[in-house]
User: Fold this.
Amino acid sequence: MQLGLVLGSVVATEKVIGLEGVRFLVVQPLDKTQRPAGDTLVAADAVSMAGPGELVYFVASREAAEALPVRFVPVDHAIVGIVDDVHLEEE
Amino acid sequence: MKVGRVAGTVVSTINIPLLDDHRLLLCDTQDVNGEASGYTIAVDVVDAGVGDTVLILDEGSSARQILGLNWGAIRAVVVGIVDELVIDGEVRPLG
Assistant:
């Protein structure tokens, strides 16, 4: 799982069967010190509560779909938690 | 699997129910020279702590097997604490 910052949302009415009611958010992946790392991506919101400006963590690949109500759907990134705090050791 | 080092912890209250009972460790992954090659947030099943060199599994079906699940959005799991790392006959310092 990786850290990400939610930048915005994606609205799509026509979707593949199984994705009805699933929210999609635009996420900027972050490195461990919460600096942007890599291209933005669209992730399904498996917690249904994440919103713009929030620090989240997301799972990638096939396991992303396992976080959703219908598990066999074409989704490759899913937000699985909202981060309260990241404790890093003193460098 | 990958060798990594626990750099910190991630605390979260709102998450998918599956992650309710699990501690999350932020681990730096290492290449063969011990250099950092990115990081991953992994579920802890061995009570590893910050500073430990660990073995990280990053594959979904094995992760579910360890956690006794038939399905679930978990992929990375800390499955061991490394005592010694030997490369080309040389013992590498840990951490």
About this structure: Chain B touches chain A at residues 7-16, 18-19, 24, 26, 28, 39-42, 50-51, 60, 63, 71-76 (CB under 8 Å).
